[in-house]
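As promised in the previous annual report, we have extended the structural survey to additional targets. Below is the entry for HTH crp-type domain-containing protein.
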Amino acid sequence: MNNQELLVQALAHLPPSVSAYAEGAELIITAGSQQVRLAMVIKQIHRKESLQQLVKQPDSVLICNPLSDFLAEKCSEQGINFIDAAGNARVQSEGLYLWISGRTAATVKLPARAGWTAATVRCVFALLADPALQNASIRTMADCAGVSVGVVSNTLALLKAEGLSWQCEGQSFVRQQPLIHEWLTHYRSQLRAKLGGMRLSAPLSWHDIVLVAGDLWSGEVAAELLTEYLQAEQLMLFTEVPLAERIRQLRCKPDAAGRLWLVPAFWGQRLSVDKRGQALLAIAELLASGDSRNIEAAEKINERFLHLKTLPAPWV
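The corresponding structure token record, generated without further manual editing, is:
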């Protein structure tokens, strides 16, 4: 496992009563009313000799692979705070005392891979488009996002590890603005190239395209609808109808240079995408275009609906 995977897995397996997230080179740990900020040392530990350099770092916490009982005990004897990838933890600092033991790598189900994937982007979109899903069952989240239960579990673990979500009194919350910024960044790097769909010829005016249930405009058309700032030239339409059937309904011919990009919706049919969700999709596509007027439109949509301090840098 690399350092990022160790961090994600270690923090993902802390109990719900403990919140921990990385901020730069530091880890912020909260349990009850106590909170501490410790320097992180991320390292594979397989021998007691590897612990020697950590003895004189009392204001730090070791993030590591699952430790044997022997090595965990050596950490305690030498005053070394640690959280391992199996979810064991011994941290004592500034009034916070955290002790979790008895877990092994075999007792926890670890994410198949750490980091953002196309499936993660799909899952996070559902959480942002419908905030009520944050406290729904994992099965409901999966149905609305159009992903597997395993993807939802891994996504929630990742958000917790990256400090993008937390729990309080049994309720789950996400840090909306940082999460939106991350989603916009990863949409274009992880998901956009995998959307598929087909380019079609289009009528002179997008107003002549009759929408059906499950259709959703994005990109320039969404910007025109949300801000009245653009006159859309390039058209992007998400649909929940099977692609071949929707093409027949539209009576548009396939055209590699066509203005209309018809794209299968990447979310589940149970998800209700409101104007805020549409704004999120629109901004993602406007930034991807690299067009200066589209980027201005993205800023206007952000000011009205998302309120990010800054948008991710547009594609060039």
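Confidence is low (pLDDT under 50) at residues 106-113. The first helix runs from residue 3 to 12. These points will be discussed at the next consortium meeting with the crystallography subgroup.
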